[in-house]
Amino acid sequence: MRSKNHYLENKKVARKIILEYLHFFAALYKVKFRKVAIRNQRSKWGSCSKAKNLNFNYKVAFLPNDQRDYVVVHELCHLIEFNHSKKFWAEVARTIPNYKEIRKKVKSTSLR
Ligand SMILES: [Zn+2]
């Protein structure tokens, strides 16, 4: 149960870090979100609901900066475009022009 302990020990600090970047990018995009949940999922880095609630894996806080920013921006852009359309990616590219390359790195990072 090492990973569960790691989660419990780091959840608070992860939330603080993730919220800091969320607020920064939310101000840039001029979007508002509702609740933020920090979880320890096995398969997801983050998600966004239609009710504007955001959900992040606590491990996002410990990713390299560019990857952390990408995950945060990705979920925030779903508050503008609730899909993965060209418009959605154009929003992501406003702050992360090289998102394609960063996205690959995030996808290849195991959550297990
Ligand atoms: Zn998405």
Automatic annotation (TrEMBL):
Gene3D superfamilies: Metalloproteases ('zincins'), catalytic domain. It comes from the Bacteria. Residues 11-108 form the YgjP-like metallopeptidase domain. PANTHER family: UNCHARACTERIZED PROTEIN YGJP (PTHR30399), UTP PYROPHOSPHATASE (PTHR30399:SF1). This is YgjP-like metallopeptidase domain-containing protein.
